[in-house]
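WARN no homologs supplied; continuing
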Amino acid sequence: MRVPRRSVWRVELEVTGEVFTWRGPAPFHFVALDDDAAAELAEVATAVTYGWGMVPVRGRLGVTEFTTSLWPKEGTFYVPLKDAVRRAEGVEVGDVVTVHLHVVGL
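OK structure emitted
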């Protein structure tokens, strides 16, 4: 389905998952979207990506709000959790958290 660049759609997702780490050149912490959320996001991703499939979002973990971009990976999308966000909410690797997301650009 082709989605116009400007749309009246509003994509909001609630993602609950375990915080995990990926240790590349610098450690990153993520929560993966479940299959349903990934499928919903995939419908609009091409309309909002700025390249490499990255999808800009506004997020909230607990009371901490942040901006980031979702990473397409292994058939889903990963929500990066910045150190400042994790520290503010006392979140560690292995914790199960709920992240509220709003796709930017729709």
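The beta strands are 12-18, 20-23, 27-32, 55-61, 64-73, 76-80, 96-103.
OK
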